[in-house]
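> forwarded from #structure-qc
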């Protein structure tokens, strides 16, 4: 009896120790460990979750602040994935904090980055009625947008290669060869026409040079003619001056005679007056001739527009 009672006491003690141990573990798990973390829910609809695993890192500004605790596809929307994350209670998760998925290009392992733009919102503590934890909104990943652009470029490159293969099919090669042959012929014809054009330009340059030489010779001849005519022009000017003086003297004498003879010499005066008028016209004509002779170029080539008289 004593041995059985002893075994009974030992069994009861073991049961009490096991119960105490389990109770302590549960208490530590609920009060000590869980109180050091905050739990949040993230719904991903637009970003793929390739490489995201349980226990994956949750970072803020490159610093690990938590890990992925659970993820599950939503029965009502298979394109929506609910991810539960655990973060350090000191992590500053705000109402405007968003979550994006990033991947290591070498290993392909994904992680979640929490980004909080400026200005900072209040701490995220509100729990919706149908949710267990506060909800962090999904953000837009630049890498996903870049991947989309790369995929578009890949599709465009594939379409381009397909079109190029279609162009280079045997039925099109003959047409391309003929087009290239026609281009070669056209190029040869254009080269020949360019050579003819160059020769024409050379001929025009030679003609222009000869015209320049001829103009120089005409100018020299004009200058020499002007030098030879200068003495004759000066002598003619002196002769005209003498004729003008003589005409003035004759006019004075006629005026005196007309006063002496009066009406008897009126007919003679008229004749002399007519003769003087003709003499003056002659002098004017010679003056114009001398004016032209003073400009040898005008004498040889004709008067310029500024030197022409009325009606010329």
């Amino acid at each position: 009896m004593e041995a059985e009672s002893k075994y009974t006491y030992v069994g009861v003690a073991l049961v009490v120790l096991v119960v105490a141990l389990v109770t302590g573990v549960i208490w530590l798990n609920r009060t000590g460990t869980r109180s050091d973390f905050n739990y949040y829910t993230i719904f991903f609809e637009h970003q793929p979750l390739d490489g995201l695993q349980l226990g994956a890192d949750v970072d803020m500004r490159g610093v690990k602040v938590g890990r992925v605790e659970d993820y599950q596809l939503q029965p009502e929307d298979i394109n929506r994935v609910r991810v539960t994350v655990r973060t350090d209670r000191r992590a500053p998760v705000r109402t405007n904090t968003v979550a994006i998925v990033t991947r290591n290009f070498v290993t392909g392992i994904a992680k979640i980055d929490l980004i909080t733009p400026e200005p900072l919102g209040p701490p995220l503590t509100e729990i919706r009625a149908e949710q267990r934890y506060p909800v962090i909104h999904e953000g837009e990943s630049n890498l996903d947008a870049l991947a989309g652009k790369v995929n578009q470029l890949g599709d465009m490159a594939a379409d381009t290669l397909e079109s190029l293969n279609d162009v280079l099919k045997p039925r099109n090669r003959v047409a391309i060869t003929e087009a290239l042959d026609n281009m070669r012929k056209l190029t040869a014809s254009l080269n020949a026409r360019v050579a003819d054009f160059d020769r024409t330009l050379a001929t025009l340059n030679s003609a222009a040079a000869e015209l320049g030489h001829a103009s120089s010779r005409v100018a020299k001849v004009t200058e020499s003619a002007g030098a030879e005519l200068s003495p004759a022009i000066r002598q003619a000017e002196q002769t005209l001056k003498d004729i003008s003086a003589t005409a003035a003297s004759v006019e004075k004498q006629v005026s005196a005679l007309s006063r002496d003879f009066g009406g008897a010499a009126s007919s003679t005066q008229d004749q002399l007056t007519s003769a003087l008028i003709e003499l003056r016209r002659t002098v004017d004509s010679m003056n114009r001739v001398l004016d032209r002779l003073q400009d040898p170029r005008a004498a040889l080539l004709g008067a310029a527009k500024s030197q022409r008289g009325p009606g010329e």
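QC bot note: Residues 228-304 form one domain. The mean pLDDT is 76.
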